[in-house]
């Protein structure tokens, strides 16, 4: 009987299903940290150590870059594309960069605005973290930025839901949903408990706190739309706020997307049988994997930059100084026109056109419109580094 009680206690430590007045069963999450406590020994201890080491290496690699914020600029956009694609958008990194450069292509997917909103929401949250610690208020602000004026934007941007939602295949109902989050009257308290946990930490390692918080947020599902994207954003925000990274350069969307079935199964196992340890092992594997990829990309950026600095010096002669200035600006303006380069350098149209042509000749720029006029060029080796890391992860 004692064993059965222990098993029952562990199964219920994430919360319990309660039948609602209209007949469906909704999940009421238990406050964090889990009780009975997590077992952070054995395999989990080793994974946590490896994840901390991988994050440290990533932080060091990013800080060796001449301007780490420029790495963040592109990384944020890559994550925006991937996280939005999980929710069904079609826009690519190229579509987003082109839209930001005001390059209007009739073939651009209409959902590019959703991806641009993700960038805006991420930047808003990162800026606010400087003076506003993680809070329900911050989550609501980020959600308002994410959902403003796009598909789902009519579903109360920035407002906690006041009706029941559910998760499952298309066409399912409350009666046969895969998972039904807490009813709306339970949401404010569940979020308040999550906020309190993240402020005191429950004596757990910071990285474990982040992993628990993501799963708990997805279980609460506090909005009518955008919960997945907000939950993934929270990982980056919390890693930065808890000083596990000095820059927000760890995003798990690629990892979650590659292992989508396991991701959902691990979250559901937490709710059904209290398997927090299984979820954390999966989460920490993702941190290790994506940290290593991002570290390699940071090193590749350094190599690419030095390679093209040498090419500019070798091939542009007296124009080399202007060529270097253009390349430095391209890191946060990866799609440009001749007029943009003219403005940067203060040259005549002919002079700017010549610089662009010569940078195109050494492979630094590539024309992407096919037009004879109003041409646009992209910072080819840099953008390609982010595209070549698979459907994603940097």
Relevant terms:
394 residues; mainly alpha; Fic-like fold; Arc Repressor Mutant, subunit A; 2 domains; three-stranded antiparallel β-sheet; two-stranded antiparallel ribbon; 16 helices; 59% helix; 5% strand; Fido_containing; Fic family protein; nucleotide-binding; ATP binding; WH_DNA-bd_sf
Summed up, what is this model?
This protein is mainly α and 394 residues long. The chain has helices spanning 2-11, 42-63, 68-86, 93-100, 112-128, 136-147, 187-200, 206-220, 227-241, 253-258, 260-273, 276-316, 320-330, 338-345, 349-361, 380-387, and strands at residues 15-19, 25-29, 335-336, 365-367, 377-379. Strand 1 and strand 2 (25-29) form a beta hairpin.
Walkthrough of the structure:
This is Fic family protein. Keywords: ATP-binding, Nucleotide-binding. This protein has 394 residues and is mainly alpha-helical. It folds into 2 domains: 255 residues, Fic-like fold (Orthogonal Bundle); 73 residues, Arc Repressor Mutant, subunit A (Orthogonal Bundle), CATH 1.10.10. The chain contains 16 helices and 5 strands. A hairpin with a 5-residue loop joins strand 1 and strand 2. The chain is elongated, with a radius of gyration of 23 Å. The C terminus is likely disordered.
């Amino acid at each position: 009987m004692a064993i059965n009680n222990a098993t029952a206690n562990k199964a219920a430590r994430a919360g319990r299903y309660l039948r609602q007045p209209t007949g469906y069963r909704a999940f009421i999450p238990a406050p964090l940290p889990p009780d009975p406590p997590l077992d952070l020994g054995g395999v989990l201890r080793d994974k946590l150590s490896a994840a901390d080491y991988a994050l440290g290496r990533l932080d060091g690699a990013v800080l060796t870059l001449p301007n780490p914020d420029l790495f963040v600029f592109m990384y944020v956009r890559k994550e925006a594309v991937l996280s939005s694609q999980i929710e069904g958008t079609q826009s690519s990194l190229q579509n987003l960069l082109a839209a930001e450069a005001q390059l209007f292509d009739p073939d651009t997917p209409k959902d590019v605005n959703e991806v641009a909103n993700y960038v805006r929401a991420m930047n808003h949250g990162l800026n606010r973290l400087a003076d506003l610690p993680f809070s329900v208020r911050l989550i609501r602000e980020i959600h308002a930025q994410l959902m403003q004026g796009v598909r789902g934007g009519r579903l109360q941007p920035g407002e906690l839901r006041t009706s029941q939602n559910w998760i499952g295949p298309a066409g399912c109902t409350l009666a046969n949903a895969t998972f039904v989050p807490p009813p709306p009257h339970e949401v404010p308290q569940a979020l308040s408990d999550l906020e309190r946990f993240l402020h005191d930490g429950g004596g757990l390692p910071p990285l474990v706190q982040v992993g628990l918080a993501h799963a708990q947020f997805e279980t609460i599902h506090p909005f009518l739309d955008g919960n997945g994207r907000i939950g993934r954003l929270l990982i980056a925000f919390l890693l930065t706020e808890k000083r596990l990274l000095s820059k927000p350069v760890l995003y798990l969307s690629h990892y979650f997307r590659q292992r989508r079935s396991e991701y959902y199964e691990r979250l559901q196992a937490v709710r059904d049988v209290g398997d927090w340890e299984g979820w954390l092992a999966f989460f920490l594997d993702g941190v290790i994997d994506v940290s290593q990829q991002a570290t390699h990309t940071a090193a590749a950026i350094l190599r690419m930059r030095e390679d093209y600095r040498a090419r500019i010096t070798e091939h542009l002669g007296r124009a080399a100084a202007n060529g270097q200035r253009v390349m430095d600006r391209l890191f946060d303006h990866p799609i440009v026109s001749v007029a943009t380069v003219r403005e940067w350098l203060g040259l005549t149209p002919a002079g700017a056109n010549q610089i662009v042509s010569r940078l195109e000749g050494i492979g630094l720029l590539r024309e992407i419109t096919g037009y004879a006029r109003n041409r646009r060029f992209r910072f080819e080796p840099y953008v390609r580094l982010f595209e070549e890391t698979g459907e994603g992860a940097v």
